[in-house]
Design goal:
By secondary structure, the chain is α/β, with parallel strands linked by helices. The chain has 17 helices and 12 strands. It binds iron/sulfur cluster. Iron/sulfur cluster binds next to helix 8.
Length: about 450
């Protein structure tokens, strides 16, 4: 019998979990009822609603057990590498070594939300001079200080140069606290001038061959640091294999995004889509398992599409969402207000586009690093957003401002100008704090107004 898609509360998922188990449902070793994560302090789960598919349960359990996985990896003798800021490049090099596991300390971004501020990480950052004028990634400082969230890595890397001021300042503070960091520079991406060799990067942005060569040299330095950590050289074949595996993840993700964003009715809610998209950058410390988690979701979505079942009213407004949201609950709220996610730009499109496999692997990674939407002009990002809006047939854009984030001061206006200039589409800018309950009613009103605006526009077209 087909189980109809339904968003469940945590308590409802527990009841469903018991019946799934009674019916013989099998899980990977990190499986179990979702509510057990409350014991770790993940209190926000009590305020979210979750998709009811076993594939979604697997996704959540995979996400919420990363710390355990890192501790097991260390106990098994693997080296842990904390790859900071680049969102997707250095992990591909690190995962080419069987003896290394990479993770993003930046992931502490979401701890204040998931633990409803109970871990005190933002207070620690405040006390260390990194106050709320910085984005929630400042929680990372608290995580390093308390050592209660991830094991301290054996090695830290961080990209600098054309990165946000927030991250630069926070990583420098970590360095000041005695954490040794291997920095590598990413230059600001710019289009070639006359006489310069042009390169079209994965995803379509333009860059110069000299900038690609510069980034390659920087990544070569990082590779030799990883080789020292692993006490061996890495072959080009091993790196190419790692790139192909990364591409498997990217292709699976592209299929899932396309199948979900273009289907009617919607086969998977925006919250689960946000979580799974994040796997493309950090693999949740297990790249093979990441692929299986995505395949499982694709299977579920396929089945829902084939049988024509899904979520939300037929006239749900098709929204393109820009920037990851600091409070996961906002994704549920959009749907409650009559919207659905049909396209996203969560700051890492470069981790979704396939990496070239017909060129030298380090050059391919350098191209990918330069394709980061955040290392170029906001106009570049905005044009890519327009392209994706057209591809997925969205009707409105939400730019979700990240509290304190330096790039959020002006980017919303630039994105709105480009989007409304080319597509005459409503663009709403909202700011969502890590725990948004105090501003929930104003968020509701603004989302509701956007939904009504789109519905009124439909009648006049
Ligand atoms: S300011 Fe933006 S890009 Fe920088 S760390 Fe924060 S969320 Fe990431």
């Amino acid at each position: 019998m087909i189980e109809l898609p339904k968003q469940l509360t945590l308590a409802e998922w527990d009841a469903r979990y018991q019946s799934l188990k009674a019916a013989g449902h099998r899980e990977p070793p990190y499986g179990g009822p979702l509510s057990r994560h409350l014991e770790d302090g993940d209190y926000r789960l009590q305020r979210l609603t979750f998709d009811n598919a076993p594939a979604s349960l697997r996704l959540w359990n995979f996400l919420l057990t990363e710390e355990e996985r890192l501790r097991h990896a260390r106990a098994a003798g693997k080296k842990l590498v904390g790859t900071m800021k680049d969102l997707g490049t250095v992990p591909i090099m690190a995962y080419a070594f069987d003896e290394i596991v990479a993770f993003y300390p930046d992931g502490a971004w979401w701890i204040p939300c998931v633990m409803e501020l109970s871990a005190g990480l933002l207070d620690i950052a405040d006390a260390m001079g990194v106050d709320q004028s910085f984005c929630p990634v400042r929680a990372m400082i608290g995580a390093f200080v308390t050592q209660a969230h991830f094991p301290l890595p054996d090695l830290l890397t961080c990209s600098v140069g054309a990165v946000c001021d927030d991250f630069s300042a926070i990583a420098q503070r970590l360095s000041g606290l005695g954490h040794s960091i291997h920095w590598w520079e990413i230059p600001h991406r710019r289009a070639p001038e006359q006489g310069e060799d042009p390169v079209v990067l994965p995803g379509g942005f333009a860059a110069t061959a000299s900038d690609v060569a510069f980034v390659k040299r920087e990544l070569d330095r990082i590779l030799s640091v990883l080789e020292t950590l692993a006490s061996r050289k890495l072959s080009d074949d091993a790196l190419s294999h790692s790139i192909r595996t990364a591409n498997d993840v990217r292709m699976a993700m592209a299929r899932l995004r396309r199948d979900v964003f273009t289907a009617d009715p919607c086969p998977l809610p925006g919250l689960e889509m946000l979580i799974v998209e994040m796997l493309a950058i950090h693999y949740c410390s297990d790249r093979e398992e990441t692929l299986q988690v995505i395949y499982d979701l694709i299977k579920e979505v396929d089945q829902r599409r084939r049988t024509g079942v899904g979520y939300f009213a037929k006239d749900a407004v098709r929204v393109f969402w820009v920037n990851p949201v600091a409070d996961l609950r906002a994704m549920n709220l959009l749907e409650e207000m009559g919207g659905r996610i049909c396209g996203t730009e969560y700051l890492f499109t470069h981790a979704l586009d396939p990496i070239p496999t017909d060129i030298d692997p380090m050059t391919a990674l350098a191209q990918m690093a330069l394709a980061d939407p955040m290392v170029g002009a906001t106009q570049d990002r905005a044009h890519r957003i327009v392209r994706d809006i057209v591809q997925f047939g969205c009707e409105a854009v939400i730019v979700s401002k990240i509290p304190g984030a330096s790039h959020c001061a002006l980017e919303g206006g630039i994105i709105a100008d480009v989007v409304s200039g080319q597509l005459e589409m409503p663009v709403l800018e909202i700011e969502v704090p890590p725990v948004s309950d105090p501003v929930r009613s104003s968020l509701k009103t603004r989302l509701e107004a956007l939904v009504e605006t789109v519905k009124r526009r439909r009648k006049t077209r």
